[in-house]
């Protein structure tokens, strides 16, 4: 049974009622971020119950030394940790000498959380009875400013209900934090300096090893019934890594006392003097004031939603799900900084480590290309170009490859591999293919070819060289094979000839060769520069092509399908529908040995190939492979339901497509995989967007034109979305009677609908 406590709402994530068993899950679901930093929805006041404390800063990490029982040559030296950053939200509260702690209150009622996605704020309210009998009503609103993206704001209000109250606020900032996830239980932060002012304080600390310097700051103002009482702290306590102020107030029954706390981080990635930058940031925020900061937040999110929103009419849970996914994607990455990327947990948790997986190229780039300016997607491609030297070093030092062959890391912060599972690090090499595919996909969608001669061609050459050297010639098969890999299905390790891996290897070589020829014709100066730099000859390209032209692909002629890998049909092929529900999820119930010997598939593997290269196969081939492999897929990867939803819609299996859509859109809200307390699945959320736009909307790009084949689930009355296609904004609205296409501006846009060319904005397609 999945969790079912989030209240359906079109624009908000809402929890009602306090349950200690839900605290960690809600800390993930109600997380907030602004692209530069983020935090789990931890309580500001003391909480003695079970909690997962987490605040995070984009680009800040620690190289935690790899910990394994048996060291193997080639293991990465460290596993990069997304660091729990210093805590700026803390506000200890005492009421009539009693600590406010929801875990020890004699009663908590009318507890409510709301994450308002439309306006970009998080609110928590409750009534509580303390052990000393004092009854209070509390309301807290918190947001991370999109405009001043180093700044967060808290408004914490307390109203005594049954007696007058002495309320003591003890706001603090604390760099003495630890990670939930650490290999050696080390401290990651070294305190450097503490500075205290009248109502503001600063703690500067730096990370060990990587030496990122961060100044954590706070500024506090105390109010009574909305009026600034202009008091200074009665005491100031400090250590080398923490500063805490104490403010004492008396408030009458029924009146409201509050503290407004401004806090956040300035980091050495962006400032030479982080302390001076923090002082400047506080000044800017104080000058604006709470009301203006909140209004600016609402306006900034309005602009984001204007382009990225997807509306669904008649299905509140489906609507809530897609907006939650779009909201979290925009909280995590806004495309401002090409040094940053999209971490699998974003700012909601620490699991997986690293900031970049193949998820970015395979799933996220389409969302950012279509809902933002193309420069955002180009920044994501540039991120990989900037790390090409590290990818070449990785292939050379860990695999013994030569001549500029590049293996991009499975997980990275700075270009170095930082994933310490052998089967992933050295065998899940298909990530190279996703990076090359993203270059192709970017050009296909935007029409901007300039990236390839300027930067992309070098990446394509390094990847082609990798596949050429990674393949080996089989005399028995008289073809080239790729041995000892892990495909997208991570429930298979160290297998031979994974179909998806072999296919994308061939495609990468062919595509690199095509682009070399195209650049030679159209950008001869860049062609000469790149080939001289990488020392590439025509003879070497011919050697690549031998591998691509004679690549082996496992097939079953009897079943008419491509085999996931050699020997797949030797397994005990019991479909998932016949697997006892008590055994699910198998990754939490079975030994790894049992998982590996089973036919069960974590996520799209062969079908991932059909997703990327749909035009290479017939619809009949897709249907045969879909029907076979989906029956063995347990969907225990967050990346799985979206691909299956898109393909089910293409095959007119609309009930199945809708079911998969709900699973991908509400994966975390309903906790399908029973792990949301560890954080949300951010990168797969872009797949949710694709499941509507590419699945139900049927959007494809072919021959420089947008193609659509719109369909609508029977559960919906209608849906709509926008696409920024080559700087023209197209709105698509679908209901059961018709589909309308509207273009912003006066310029016509020719699109293809169900195979027929049309002028967008001048017609409605009858469904």
Keywords:
single chain; 767 residues; alpha+beta; ten-stranded antiparallel β-sheet; 33% helix; globular; hydrolase activity; GH65_N; Glyco_hydro_65_M; 6-hairpin_glycosidase_sf; hydrolase
Short description:
The chain is built from 19 helices and 33 strands. It has 767 residues and is α+β, with helices and mostly antiparallel strands. Strands 1, 9, 10, 11, 12, 14, 15, 16, 17 and 20 form a ten-stranded antiparallel β-sheet that branches. The chain has a five-stranded antiparallel β-sheet with strand order 8-7-13-19-18, with no helix packed on it. Strands 21-28-29-30-33 form a five-stranded antiparallel β-sheet.
Mind explaining what this structure looks like?
By secondary structure, this protein is α+β, with helices and mostly antiparallel strands. Helices cover 33% and strands 24% of the residues. It has 19 helices and 33 strands. A hairpin with a 4-residue loop joins strand 9 and strand 10. The longest helix is centred in the middle third of the chain and has 35 residues, at 274-308. The protein is globular, with a radius of gyration of 27 Å. The relative contact order is 0.09. InterPro entries: 6-hairpin_glycosidase_sf, 6hp_glycosidase-like_sf, Gal_mutarotase_sf_dom, GH65_N, Glyco_hydro_65_C, Glyco_hydro_65_M, Glyco_hydro_65_N, Malt_Pase/Glycosyl_Hdrlase. This is Family 65 glycosyl hydrolase. Keywords: Hydrolase. GO terms for molecular function: hydrolase activity.
């Amino acid at each position: 049974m999945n969790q079912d406590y989030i209240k359906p709402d079109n624009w908000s994530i809402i929890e009602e009622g306090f349950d200690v068993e839900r605290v960690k899950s809600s800390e993930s679901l109600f997380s907030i971020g602004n692209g530069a930093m983020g935090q789990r929805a931890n309580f500001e006041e003391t909480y003695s119950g079970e909690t997962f404390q987490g605040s995070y800063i984009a680009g800040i990490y620690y190289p935690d030394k790899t910990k394994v029982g048996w060291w193997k040559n080639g293991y990465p030296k460290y596993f990069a940790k997304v660091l729990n950053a210093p805590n700026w939200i803390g506000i200890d509260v005492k009421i009539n000498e009693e600590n406010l702690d929801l875990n020890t209150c004699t009663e908590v009622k009318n507890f409510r959380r709301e994450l308002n996605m439309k306006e970009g704020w998080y609110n928590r309210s409750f009534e509580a009875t303390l052990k000393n009998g004092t009854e209070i009503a509390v309301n807290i609103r918190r947001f991370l400013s999109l405009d001043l993206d180093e700044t967060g704001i808290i408004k914490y209000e307390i109203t005594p209900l049954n007696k007058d109250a002495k309320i003591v606020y003890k706001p603090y900032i604390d760099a003495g934090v630890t990670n939930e996830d650490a290999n050696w239980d080390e401290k990651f932060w070294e305190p450097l300096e503490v500075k205290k002012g009248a109502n503001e304080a600063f703690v500067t600390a730096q990370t060990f090893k990587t030496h990122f310097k961060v100044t954590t700051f706070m500024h506090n103002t105390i109010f009574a019934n909305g009026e600034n009482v202009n008091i200074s702290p009665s005491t100031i306590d400090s250590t080398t890594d923490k500063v805490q102020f104490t403010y004492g107030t008396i408030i009458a029954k029924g009146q409201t006392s509050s503290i407004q706390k401004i806090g956040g981080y300035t980091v050495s990635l962006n400032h030479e003097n982080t302390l001076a930058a923090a002082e400047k940031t506080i000044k800017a925020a104080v000058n604006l004031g709470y009301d203006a900061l909140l209004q600016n937040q609402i306006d900034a999110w309005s602009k984001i939603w204007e382009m990225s929103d997807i509306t669904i009419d008649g299905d509140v849970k489906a609507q809530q799900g897609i907006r939650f996914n779009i909201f979290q994607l925009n909280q995590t990455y806004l495309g401002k900084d090409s040094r940053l990327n999209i971490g699998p947990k974003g700012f909601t948790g620490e699991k997986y480590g690293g900031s970049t997986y193949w998820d970015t190229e395979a799933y996220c780039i389409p969302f950012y290309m279509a809902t933002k300016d193309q420069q955002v997607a180009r920044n994501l491609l540039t991120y990989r170009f900037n790390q090409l030297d590290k990818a070449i070093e990785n292939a050379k030092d860990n695999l013994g490859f030569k001549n500029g062959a590049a293996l991009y890391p499975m997980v990275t912060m700075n270009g170095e591999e930082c994933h310490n599972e052998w089967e992933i690090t050295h065998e899940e090499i298909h990530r190279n293919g996703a990076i090359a595919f993203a270059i192709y996909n970017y050009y296909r969608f935007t029409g901007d070819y300039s990236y390839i001669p300027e930067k992309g061609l070098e990446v394509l050459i390094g990847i082609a060289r990798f596949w050429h050297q990674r393949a080996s010639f089989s005399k028995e098969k008289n073809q080239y094979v790729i041995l000892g890999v892990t495909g997208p299905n991570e429930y298979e390790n160290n297998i031979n000839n994974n179909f998806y891996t072999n296919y994308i290897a061939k495609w990468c070589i062919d595509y690199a060769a095509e682009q070399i020829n195209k650049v030679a014709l159209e950008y001869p100066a860049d062609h000469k520069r790149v080939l001289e730099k990488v020392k590439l000859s025509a003879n070497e390209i011919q050697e690549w092509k031998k591998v691509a032209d004679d690549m082996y692909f496992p097939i079953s002629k009897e079943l008419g399908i491509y085999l996931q890998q050699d020997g797949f049909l030797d397994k005990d092929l019991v479909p998932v529908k016949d697997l006892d529900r008590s055994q699910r999820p198998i990754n939490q119930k079975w030994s790894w040995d049992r998982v590996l010997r089973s036919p069960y598939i974590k996520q799209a593997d062969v079908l991932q190939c059909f997703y990327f290269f749909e035009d290479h196969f017939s619809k009949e081939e897709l249907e045969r492979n879909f029907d076979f492999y989906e029956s063995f897929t347990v969907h225990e990867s967050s990346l799985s339901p979206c691909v299956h939803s898109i393909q089910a819609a293409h095959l007119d299996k609309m009930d199945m497509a809708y079911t998969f859509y709900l699973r991908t859109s509400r994966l975390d809200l309903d906790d399908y995989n029973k792990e949301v307390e560890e954080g949300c699945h951010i990168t797969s959320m872009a797949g949710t967007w694709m499941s509507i736009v590419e699945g139900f909307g049927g959007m494809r790009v072919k021959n420089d034109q947008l193609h659509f084949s719109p369909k609508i689930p029977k559960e919906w009355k209608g849906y709509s979305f926008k696409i920024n296609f080559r700087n023209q904004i197209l709105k698509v609205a679908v209901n059961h009677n018709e589909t309308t296409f509207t273009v912003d501006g006066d310029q016509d846009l020719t699109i293809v609908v169900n195979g027929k060319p049309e002028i967008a904005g001048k017609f409605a397609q009858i469904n």
